[in-house]
Structures are given as structure tokens and as C-alpha cells.
Write a structure and sequence with these properties.
Layout: E1 8-12, H1 17-28, E2 32-37, H2 40-49, E3 56-60, H3 66-80, E4 85-88, H4 103-131, E5 134-139, H5 143-146, H6 152-172, E6 177-184, H7 190-193, H8 197-204, H9 215-226, E7 237-240
Helix pairs in contact: 1-9, 3-4, 4-6
């Protein structure tokens, strides 16, 4: 039996990158999917790749808007009959040094990552607790562990996701709802491959495994945390970093 047979998973920021890789792996393991993304066209294209309406549906969702998060989660229940898994993955970057970062750039990143994850965790928990089961996976970042130059907004938000996940895990454990987080390091994507070569080389020198990670390697950890393989784990933070900054 596939690991997620009969389960319904909602994934935010699912149209590309790590979000789509998670959706693809979940679909392979039998899950029915609701893909949330700001870009509805891209989310629909992703849903079509994963098998269409019987397997995956697309919903436009701004995770900073609680009513849109409500709609996203309600779609899972209305379309597939349950909400078993939520992956809070949606995110943006607005990198700049503190000297040059605007207040708007700080607020945007905090809102999407931290408030967006809070919205998803809070709303999904309310549904899952009624059924005494559920798994929430929040995507943090290595930047939230060590802090990165030019990312005071992103590092603060990603560190906040860890604290949020642990607090939520304590609140929801006796309701049968597990909340865990993942901190990816340097993962090969269109965004990271657009880095200047000097920046890429510097990061590579910090990785004991001497390579960047692949999106599927983050997705497989999300699958572990979403499935019953991790049934006695909550409030944990798993690093997917190749050993960087141990």
C-alpha cells in the first residue's frame, strides 16, 4: 500500500520548485491533492501534470489572507472528503542588507512566510482536531537557524516558523495533530542556479557532502513527516542540508 493512500493533502506554493516536488511525490504515494498558489494558471498546469481533477485540483490562494486559506482548505474537504495533511511551503524573498531593505520588503516576507504559515497551521488544526488526526509540515530554512547576510527579513520569518511549529505541536498533540518543520539548505532550483558563481562556490564550500540538494530530497522528508512513518514525531525540525552548519 502506498504511504498516503486515502489521504488528502493541501500544499501551498505548489506550482513549482519544492512545492511541486512535494506534490509529485505525494501523488505517487496515493494522495489526493489541493494545490494552492498565487498563480492559478501555473497551479492548474501543475494539477494537470499530476493527473487532473480526480487526483489534483488547483486553487488561487494568497496565504496572507485568512479567508483565502479557509477556501483552500475547504476545497480539500468538499472535493475529496477530508483534510489529512497540510504543507505550508509558500514563500518569497526580498533580499537586501538592513541598510537598504525597506520596511515594505521586511513586512512582505514576514507576512507570506510567518503569517502565512500561522494562517495555514491555525486553520488546518481546527479542521483536523475534529477528526483526531492530521499532519502539518512547515517549510523553514537553514537561514532561520544561522541567519544569512541580506536576509534579516527571511531569517527572522524562517526562525519564527520553527517557534510557531513547536508551540502549535504542543497545543495540538493531544488532539492527534502533529506539527513538524523542515529546514532545507542549498537546494538546486531556478532561483539558486541564478546566483553569481562566487556566491554559489562559497556556499558549496560550506557543505560537507560537497553538492547542492535536489528538490526531491526535500520532498522525501516531507513525505516522511506527512506519513505514519513519523507517527511518534511532533515539534521536530529536520535539516536537509548536506551537513552544512551542523
Amino acid at each position: 500500500m502506498a504511504l498516503l493512500d486515502g489521504k488528502t493533502a493541501v500544499i501551498t506554493g505548489a506550482a513549482q520548485g519544492i512545492g511541486f516536488a512535494i506534490a509529485e511525490m505525494f501523488a505517487h504515494e496515493g494522495a489526493r491533492l489541493v494545490l494552492g498558489d498565487l498563480d492559478l494558471g501555473a497551479a492548474q498546469a501543475a494539477a494537470d501534470k499530476l493527473g487532473g481533477a480526480n487526483t489534483a485540483v488547483a486553487v488561487r490562494c494568497d496565504v496572507t489572507n485568512s479567508s483565502e486559506v479557509d477556501t483552500l482548505l475547504a476545497t480539500a474537504v468538499e472535493t475529496f472528503g477530508s483534510l489529512d495533511i497540510l504543507v505550508n511551503n509558500a514563500g518569497i524573498t526580498r533580499d537586501a542588507t538592513m541598510r537598504t531593505m525597506t520596511e515594505e520588503e521586511f513586512d512582505q516576507v514576514i507576512d507570506v512566510h510567518l503569517k502565512g504559515t500561522w494562517n495555514g497551521t491555525r486553520k488546518a488544526s481546527a479542521i483536523m482536531r475534529e477528526h483526531k488526526r492530521g499532519a502539518i509540515v512547515n517549510i523553514s530554512s537553514l537561514s532561520g537557524k544561522v541567519g544569512m547576510v541580506g536576509q534579516t527579513n527571511y531569517s527572522a520569518a524562517k526562525a519564527g516558523i520553527v517557534g510557531l511549529s513547536k508551540a502549535a505541536a504542543k497545543e495540538m498533540a493531544h488532539h492527534g495533530v502533529r506539527v513538524n518543520a523542515i529546514q532545507p539548505g542549498l537546494i538546486r532550483s531556478a532561483m539558486t542556479e541564478a546566483m553569481p558563481q562566487k556566491a554559489w562556490d562559497q556556499k558549496m564550500n560550506e557543505i560537507p557532502m560537497q553538492r547542492a540538494g535536489e528538490v526531491a530530497e526535500v520532498a522525501s522528508v516531507a513525505l516522511f513527516l506527512a506519513s505514519d512513518l513519523s507517527s511518534y514525531m511532533t515539534g521536530t525540525v529536520l535539516e536537509v542540508t548536506g551537513g552544512r552548519f551542523m
